[in-house]
Design brief:
This protein is α/β, with parallel strands linked by helices. The chain has 9 helices and 8 strands.
């Protein structure tokens, strides 16, 4: 009970700022540099620890690992990390994010379950000495605007989605994150590497990391066990990371966006930039 109370009693700053506060907040931020990449990993896959971890440490890269106990996490330790391994990632300095306890998709029919789903991961994090997550990844990359207030009330500051709804769900494409235009709880993935995603596409995606935009990459298994449709071979992942290092990209976790963007400042219409992009694509 005490552990649950710790989670439920967390207090965060209000997302409601007056004009003067917004001005002061923006002036305190650093300009977003070119070649900024936000690295994320979904679904608690074992290769995040065995493959990604040593490579990221070698290059000094930051990253966010979005944790869920969904799928066969509790019984299949060939394909999924243990909580001890997740805790080790935290001690390494990587960010541990919330991906819901059961990888529960968020929609109008399930929104009442979201608080419980978030708290389930928070409690496990506290059991293993991991700070309650402030970053969230939408399960299955499906979004629901009505859920934004649930995330905010829970203490989530940043949330990453996929390339949907600008691009169809289940694909690899997306847009770079634009500070001030993208809602902090609807940060798009610029790419979701899958088996068909090529090195040339990777290099092209990275060109979006300029002019105040950051490229957010969404990986699953590197390699993947249970979900081959989001598989990235180890050799491919190694090549991607080597390219980032060789070309002097700054690679950070989602939480590190706070250096360049204030999570409390939200666009009045969270879907305005999405609709503008869709119009640009002729949708």
């Amino acid at each position: 009970m005490k552990l649950i109370w710790q989670v439920l009693s967390l207090v965060f700053l209000s997302a409601s700022l007056d004009a003067e506060e917004k001005k002061n907040a923006v002036s305190a931020l650093e300009p977003m540099p070119d070649k900024l990449v936000v690295l994320t990993f979904d679904d608690s896959v074992k290769s995040h620890f065995t493959v990604a971890r040593p490579i990221l440490k070698q290059y000094g890269f930051g990253a966010t690992f979005f944790i869920t106990e969904g799928f066969t996490f509790t019984t299949n330790k060939n394909d999924y990390m243990t909580w001890d391994e997740i805790a080790e990632l935290n001690r390494d300095g990587f960010e541990i994010g919330n991906h819901t306890r059961d990888h529960k998709g968020v929609n109008l029919n399930t929104i009442d379950l979201l608080e419980e789903q978030l708290t389930g991961i928070d409690i496990r994090c506290l059991e293993y000495g991991i700070p309650p997550p402030i970053s969230f990844a939408w399960p299955g990359n499906g979004i629901e605007v009505e859920a934004l207030k649930v995330l905010r009330n829970h203490g989530i500051r940043w949330a990453r989605r996929g390339g949907f709804p600008e691009y169809p769900r289940g694909g690899e494409r997306g847009f770079p994150y634009e500070q001030g235009l993208d809602h902090p709880l609807l940060i798009p993935s610029a790419a979701i590497p899958r088996p068909e995603y090529t090195f040339e596409e990777f290099v092209e995606t990275l060109k979006g990391a300029r002019d105040g935009k950051a490229v957010v990459l969404q990986f699953h298994g590197v390699p993947e066990g249970e979900h081959p449709w989001v598989h990235v071979p180890r050799e491919t992942f190694e090549r991607f990371m080597a390219y980032l290092h060789e070309h002097d990209f700054q690679v950070i976790a989602v939480r590190d966006l706070a250096r360049y963007a204030d999570w409390r400042i939200e666009p009045k219409d969270p879907m305005a930039v999405v609709e503008a992009r869709k119009a640009k694509l002729g949708q």
